[in-house]
Amino acid sequence: MAEPLDVPALTATLDGTYVEVRNLTRKRLVEYAGVLDDARELDRAAFRERVKDVVVELAATGQTGLGFPPEHGGGGDIGASVAAFETMAFGDLSVLVKVGVQFGLFGGAILQLGTQRHHDAYLAPLVRAELLGCFAMTETGHGSNVQELGTVARYDLETREYVITTPDDAARKDYIGNAAAHARVAVVFAQLDVGGASQGVHAFVVPIRDDAGAPLAGVRITDDGRKIGLNGVDNGRIAFDGVRVPRENLLNRYADVSETGVYTSEIENPDRRFFTMLGTLVQGRVCVGGAGINASKVALAIAVKYALRRRQFGPPGEPEVLLLDYGLHQRRLLPRLARTYALHFAQEVLAGQLHAVFSATEEVDERTRRALESRAAGTKALGTWHASDTIQECREACGGAGYLSVNRFDALRADTDVFTTFEGDNHVLLQLVAKGLLTDYSSSFGELDQLGMVRFVAGLAVETVIERTAVHKLLERIKDVLPGSGDDSWDTDAGLLDPQYQLAMLRWREEHMLSGVARRLKRGMDGGMAPAEVFSRCQDHVIGAARAHVERLVLEAFVDKVASMAEGPNRDAMGLLCDLYALSVVETDRAWWIEHGRLSVQRSKAISREVSSLCRRVRPIAEDLVDAFGIPAELLRTEILAEDPLT
Amino acid sequence: MAEPLDVPALTATLDGTYVEVRNLTRKRLVEYAGVLDDARELDRAAFRERVKDVVVELAATGQTGLGFPPEHGGGGDIGASVAAFETMAFGDLSVLVKVGVQFGLFGGAILQLGTQRHHDAYLAPLVRAELLGCFAMTETGHGSNVQELGTVARYDLETREYVITTPDDAARKDYIGNAAAHARVAVVFAQLDVGGASQGVHAFVVPIRDDAGAPLAGVRITDDGRKIGLNGVDNGRIAFDGVRVPRENLLNRYADVSETGVYTSEIENPDRRFFTMLGTLVQGRVCVGGAGINASKVALAIAVKYALRRRQFGPPGEPEVLLLDYGLHQRRLLPRLARTYALHFAQEVLAGQLHAVFSATEEVDERTRRALESRAAGTKALGTWHASDTIQECREACGGAGYLSVNRFDALRADTDVFTTFEGDNHVLLQLVAKGLLTDYSSSFGELDQLGMVRFVAGLAVETVIERTAVHKLLERIKDVLPGSGDDSWDTDAGLLDPQYQLAMLRWREEHMLSGVARRLKRGMDGGMAPAEVFSRCQDHVIGAARAHVERLVLEAFVDKVASMAEGPNRDAMGLLCDLYALSVVETDRAWWIEHGRLSVQRSKAISREVSSLCRRVRPIAEDLVDAFGIPAELLRTEILAEDPLT
User: Fold this and answer.
1) What's the predicted TM-score (pTM) here?
2) Do the Cβ atoms of A176 and A216 come closer than 8 Å?
3) How far apart are CA B22 and CA A322, in angstroms?
4) 10 Å Cβ neighbour count for A572?
5) What is the DSSP secondary structure assignment for residue B311, as one 8-state letter?
6) B197-207 vs A133-136, strand pairing mode
7) Distance in angstroms (rounded) separating the CA atoms of residues B66 and A276
8) How many Å lie between the alpha carbon of B328 and the closest alpha carbon of chain A?
9) Which residues of A belong to the active site?
10) Which ipTM was obtained for this model?
11) Residues of B in contact with A327 (CB under 8 A)
């Protein structure tokens, strides 16, 4: 690296289309930087109120309403709203999640599942945060399997009302953000019962508190109490004892019940209807993934800067060695830095697709929607696991200093911890990804549960399954770049830094893992095993295939980004990080490639050496690379960086 | 598993020699189970006082003084004190760590580094917790590299006092437990300066607060504030402005200064003296490792029981499937359960060795002491990483319920988080382990820093290094059990469940990794690289070799334990878990064995299949296996197990 990086230009590359909204958000975060201290020092009740006040104040600035239609006081720009949300992850995450609950989940449900009458009634006040609401989907006994929710909404023909009932404790709404203290209204997901026939899960607007904040008659609300993190958000439980709401409170974009009790829907198949409704809520997952990736940036910025100040051990009579000059410390931080950049660019592609689909003036075909949902699910899973892993490693890399709350890892780690299991448990989300790949988002995709997927796949020839996958079509020229046993380059380390080689490796793994899953499902079913048992036994392969798919998408996004940049030190640096990401992925899973005949032992060892070598090359630009994240200094005012007690 | 397990007998197997003291500790924990609620509900200041009160009350029962000499009010049983401490990890961990600070670190330093006059003056009151103290070693700028501490203790010939000074902010004592509020006295580690000559780090008893709790003149104490966890412990910073203490306050077991200012020590080499002093404090590491392992048991008990109650998805018209019937869920929890048992038995061996060395009536040779320290370091590293990993996985496996503090993962995870970096950073500890292996705990071991180790090893033939290792001697019959390429069993899955095969695999890896490190160090030095650079570049191999060593010791302990048990279902169950531990280790690192020609691709795949199969076989006895930990029900009274809202 002869020439220095142009850090502001790199920040601009990262900020992309939404540089303005990101900079405005940075400004807001600096104004509210004191919330980071409040999170440590206020008690739970006071901090909840503080966070609520911040959310209300932010709403007044327009910061939180960017994704809503202008006619209801919003900014009318989905992409901008995602960019603003992601950037808010540099600050306190209770504020972020409370914003997500109010505007993303509650507001999003009204917007996406409701019709004009709901928009007119609720959107403007909720965008202004005058009407606070919650999103009451999850129940104590039912999280991921939303279709089996226990709450019932029975249509009462006589009064033309829905009667909402919680039949047992397992069906109480649980972990609901905004429920314990602040929400006046809930969007409640319940089994719609019309004339004794169940029509599946639908969403209803249900008032839960009066203007003074007291629960309404028939609504029992309890507090979920202290949580690992996000204690500025008031999560709670809600149970309903025959609570009545007018017929108009059904969010009726996809189905309705007439006054006389006739159920109608444009979508005949109930499973497909259900998945279509859920699919409109995809923005939440996009936002959580992006938030996880940005929280990782904060942790890395602190840990990298600390490692460039803290010294430990060294030759006698000389200054001790900087932590980041240790090979192991580089290995702990720098591949995670590379993966953070990689995920950032993959998230950018995803957010762009979300914006395109939800801003489209013409009808978007179902396949495109399902593919978007799948990509959102996969990116959310990898982005949030990455956050947990990276923040934890950064904390440990800062030793005792990392354990002090003032140095930010406490809240970063605790607040993001639930990201891996809320807005869809990551494992369940990856199963969704695999289902999409294995069924090619076929028209029946929306109707298939896990066991249906098992039967569907087992009913096809493995070749048929694979030939329809997108990755299969990318693999035609594989022989040119991916050496196999017997090829000339099989035992050499030539071409490791060729993006085409790296892409071919990840594509080949994805295709091979998918066909492995298809084969296993088929074999299990052919052997007479019950579908549930077949699924259970190949579940880790299902997850593995989905992960391989997402890692391939992430690499493609990074490679494309590098290719799009102007030549110069910034592009060189991104190329270096892209190599480091790609080869780290291969190194981590190298046993698999060796086992499947696509990596020789010699080449595998060469990859490990190359990863170490890449780390040494990234080392001199590490601080520039974390500076380029553009995290305001006010948000990094940790003790370990602000003073200089280390030398 | 035709016959059911005998759970009480399995608990007795786990409790081992110290069943009585463990049961007594369980009883105490039940009496104080309310502290688990206090940890969630009290504010920081109140919880600190609560924890202090509990520690004082426990001291009155004799619970915390088991390791001290009877003549000073102790129980005179090192092994019992470790067993009691480990068992306390089932309860609140602030109480545990405060006990560790007061009796292990502070009391241990007085006991091990002091002489009769210190014992007479301090032991009885500190055992009764009338005198609260702290252990002031770590500084802001110096944690792991204790030899380079900045605090100075200058001997003033005129007044016959030591003058304790903190020269700069980097040298302030930091993260010191008991310092922020409760300690009256500190054991301060400082560079001893006698007549202008530095004699290296020594320990001094320094009063820091008056009876009313106010800092004494010249002592500046600040609070470390909120931490990720352990907020019942008052960690703080201490700086000294020329604080004077009498000559008698030097803890003078290994060195002394005469009234006339003559420095004397039985141990001439200053490095060896330093490491000898530090070595006497090994019990702290043994205790922390054991606590990590037992905290993992609590997490596993909750997660396994939850997975046997919570259902999700399944065939239409039937009850949903229990979480633990999913292959992936088994994969997430059961190998960790096996590893917990493995580490438990390894910890038992270690604690037994500690007891033997520290209870010996005759002088114990230095090599035995160094080997004990090495084993303690390695077991602490693996035991505490295991705790972080296991508790986190258990939290995620319980989804949203796992995120609620009432369900215990919050405090378990947050409180144990610092275990990986306190009492020795785990990476630094594994470097210590590797140093011992590579130098065969030679007489010069105690004198070698990292770079000295590099030079020492590089100066020997690789064969010489390896032939002196313990593992080399265990590998003589390797051909019989460890197939190599070309052998008949190379491509089959025969013998995977043979403990001799598993042991041979782990021994071979250890030896090969050690020789790889030796070769790399030699090559680097021969190539003219600076020792620091040589070390940096092969640091991950150093860590890898140490980890391989400890995993081998853990497997040996487990295999020995199984062999010692009477035939029957309990032994069968332990054999199953031992296989699962061993094959999980191989599976995780299978790329390495393949790369080094000791595992065929066919066999590698067979091992993955076998791990899944073993998980399915452990599944029916999983609840018995966590019940056998003997964690009192009062300590598992989490919401997710106490009620039944899931069905």
Assistant:
1) 0.96
2) no
3) 44
4) 18
5) B
6) unpaired
7) 65
8) 5
9) 423
10) 0.96
11) 536-540
Pick A591's closest partner by Cβ from B392, B590, B647: B590
CA-CA distance, A636 to A303, in Å (whole number)? 11
3-state secondary structure A277-320: HHHCCCHHHHHHHHHHHHHHHHHHHHHHHHHCCCECCCCCCCCC
Helices (H), ranges, B42-188: 44-61, 78-88, 93-99, 107-113, 116-118, 124-127
Query: Residue A360: which residues within 8 A CB-CB, separation 6 or more?
Result: none
Return d(Cα A132, Cα A106) in angstroms, integer: 9
Taking the C-alpha atoms of residue B335 and residue B389, their distance in angstroms, rounded to an integer, is: 12
Length of chain B: 647
Residues 6+ apart with CB under 8 A from A223: A180, A181, A234, A235, A236, A237
Interface test with B, best of A271, A385, A421 (most B CBs within 10 A): A421
Across the interface, do B451 and A315 touch by the CB < 8 Å criterion? yes
pLDDT in tens, A547-561: 999 999 999 999 999
What letter does residue B131 receive in the DSSP assignment? S
CB contact under 8 A, B313 and A145: yes
Q: Inter-axis angle of helices A7-15 and A19-31, to 10 degrees? A: 100
Q: Do B405 and A227 touch (CB under 8 A)?
A: yes
Render pLDDT for A17-28 as a digit per residue (tens, 0 to 9): 999 999 999 999
Contact A273/A265 with Cβ under 8 angstroms? yes
pLDDT for residue A59 is more than 80: yes
Whole-angstrom CA distances from B143 to A407, B139, B220 are 17, 6, 20
Triad B252, B258, B259: Cα angle to 5° = 125
Catalytic residue selected from B373, B393, B423, B610 = B423
Average pLDDT over residues B410-425: 96
Q: Which of B168, B313, B388 sits opposite A450 (nearest CB)?
A: B313
Which of B625, B395, B593 is closest to B513 using CA atoms?
Answer: B593
Task: Decide the pairing of beta strands B185-194 and B133-136.
Answer: parallel
In whole angstroms, what is the distance from residue B272 CA to residue A186 CA?
69
Counts for chain B of helices (H) and strands (E), in that order: 28, 10
Q: Is B566 helix (H, G, I), strand (E, B) or coil?
A: coil
Chain B residues touching A321 at Cβ < 8 A: 532, 536
Contacts of A136 in chain B (CB under 8 A): none
Q: Is the pLDDT of residue B2 over 60?
A: no
- Residue type present at position B17: T
- Closest residue in A to B309 (Cα) is A141
Say whether B326 and A539 touch across the interface (CB within 8 A): yes
What are the strands, taking DSSP E only, across B449-551? none
Distance CA B346, CA B352 (A): 10
pLDDT at B493: 79
DSSP line for B227-278: BSS-TTS--EEEEEEEEEEEGGGB--SSEEE-TTS-EEES--SHHHHHHHHH
CB A228 within 8 A of CB B395: yes
Q: Are strands B197-207 and B133-136 parallel, antiparallel or unpaired?
A: unpaired
CA A376 vs CA A348, B161, B205, B279, B535: distances in Å: 11, 68, 60, 53, 43
Q: How far apart are CA A439 and CA A454, in angstroms?
A: 10
Q: Is B313 left (phi over 0), alpha (psi -120 to 50) or beta?
A: left
Distance CA A181, CA A174 (A): 14
> Rounded distance, CA B335 to CA B323, Å?
16
Would you give the DSSP letter of residue A445? G
Q: B-chain residues within 8 Å CB-CB of A417? A: 395, 403
Write the pLDDT tens digit of every residue in B304-334: 999 999 999 888 888 999 999 999 999 999 9
Return the residue of A nearest to B604 by Cα.
A595
Amino acid at B13: T
Type of residue found at A514: L
Name the residue among A299, A308, A295 with its Cα closest to residue A623: A308
